[in-house]
Amino acid sequence: MDPEPVGGRPLGLYFLVDLVNAFQGGAEVTTAGLQSLAERHGGQALRLADARVPELREAAALLGAVLDSDDVDRAAEAVNALLDRYPSQPRLVRLPDRPWAVHARTPQDAGPVHWLLSTAALALALWLAERGRCAWGRCAAPDCDRYFVDTGRRSPQRYCSPRCGTRVRVTAHRRQHGR
Ligand SMILES: [Zn+2]
Does the residue 127 lie in any domain? Predict the structure, then answer.
């Protein structure tokens, strides 16, 4: 997976999706695992270092519920509910050598999970508004339940990665040729 530039587009979503995927299928998630996930996505995400794994699992489930939606009106309601529950002050922030980007600024006393969910809600809101649809999904390949961000402009994305797409095509091809 490509490392995401902080403030890159779509804003923070690759990080969120990676985080939700880390908890998929009841996988055991360790603090060290979260740390390396956060490092792959740049400094902001390091705030999660202080979060407790069970709390993050709950947060990941909330985000997974949004990512499971392909009904744009319902998704918007779900994102608005998160924005209400985990408010932040959106700010334009410019990190060294980066373009200006929208960041969620949370109160000083807000914990890392509040920060995560307010950042997530803002990122999902901006992305939904920009694309006008639920531009995300869950992999259609058998034995894969990973979520993805759909950055495609043409047909909707079906697989989490080119690897899963190829795997499905190879299986279909074999079946077609009786092997
Ligand atoms: Zn997949």
Answer: yes
